[in-house]
Amino acid sequence: MAFSKACFSFIVLIVLLSSTTSLAHPGFGWGGKGGPFGGGSSGLFPGFYQYSCPQANDIVMSVLRKAIAKDSRMAASLLRLHFHDCFVQSGGPNWELPLGRRDSKTASLSGSNNNIPAPNSTIQNLISLFKRQGLNDIDLVALSGGHTIGVARCVTFKQRLYNQNGNNQPDHTIEKNYFLDLKSVCPKSGGDSNISPLDLASPAKFDNTYFKLLLWGKGLLTSDEVLYTGEVGKTIQLVKRYAEDEGRFFEHFAKSMVNMGNISPLTGFNGEVRKNCRLVN
To answer: Considering the entire predicted model, what is its pTM?
Structure first.
């Protein structure tokens, strides 16, 4: 069941189930590097399961409805899985997603550590990492908007509260009241597994509030807030644009998800279609 682990339409359905509003964006290309977005040709296409498993989307939708009804955080978890899987294997909107990606026969801890952005990443590190994967500033900021849902553990943002630059001082970009709220959740000693929403205003809704919070100094992770404070590339302008125009964010997010799914996928005789998603065959 390769389509249930790797970059398949469950991400589309996750976003739909996590939002109160969704926009259809038919006609997005899934090959080449057209337009302002990154990503490249991959050999994937939307009708991959048309004949071999025509009910695939309905099956996935049914399973997801049940899973997210049981635990709303599942949507964010699967969105994160898509990000991890696509980056490592290379080395509210709705969209048509190219299918056919096989599962890998191996897993790489070092690949994950080297290719997935750390929560304390600088803007320079983020831009460089995305560029290495064939993605650009638009992809970086739009995909970061996936943090409109989900939570993060205290250990991922504690440094910002107590020792951001190795001088036992907090990150001065955090809004004062938000800083105090975070300290109550994440004490200086202990509490590393305590959680806080990535989007404190609407943590269970896929919208553009994440970007509005960045403008107010209320991004949870360093890698969130530097999109607005980093002063490198076009990220500041993009944060402002998405904060003002939710439709444009949805449009760019959909396109960038396709781009990310096209990062060096395993197709044809490469990889495998797993019988059990948790195990290699």
So the answer is: 0.69
